[in-house]
Amino acid sequence: MIVDHDTQRVVDVLENREKVTVAAYLKAGKESGLFAEVVEVTTDMWDAYVEASREVFGDGIAITIDRFHVMKNFQEGLTAARRELQRTLPEEAKAELKGSRWWWVTNSENLCEEHRAAFAELRQKFPTLAVLWDQREQLRAIFEDQAITTPERGRERLQAWIAEVKKLGLKAFDKFCKTLTNWMDKIANYFRSRSSNGRTEGLNHGIRTILWRAYGMLNFKNFRLRVLHRFGYAKK
What pTM was estimated for this model as a whole? Predict the structure, then answer.
């Protein structure tokens, strides 16, 4: 799905996400003038999207890895690390933690007051697990910090965060830290203009409602037209 950040509408839906498909579409759009003024592309950590964008638009554009996909990737590492630690706890402690998974992976402001209080008490009882949650909050705070206004400064803060996480010695975080390092330049581009795929994720949810109402769709052409009719500007 191609989304215009300026209009926040769906530009088009492609049949697959292979590089050749994406590159061909972007090239045609550039030649027609549709994408003549593109200065930034936001995407998730899918090589085909990045490579196709760079191939078509060259080095003159900024490619930004969406911060929400970075956090989602971290959540997976946090969950794995939490499980790693919980396996070392006695059964009584494990039972006390049962049912608390959502608290560890959601933003505290999205919890009701009762749950926030209960979660704070749980963190006091399990300080090692609380450290994991603190790392999550620190990473989120970096993306929220409005004082970071350049990719260079954002990179410095993220690299410092990685150094602190590595001190914890949890293998479950190794994969995420490696991913963050490998994609660092494109993730740090977020601090250039703070563009994200938040709107795209919302549109994805809307697109899923089309599939739910139709109990699935096998005809891509019809599916594409429905999406463009509802969320974009259908082409004749």
Answer: 0.84
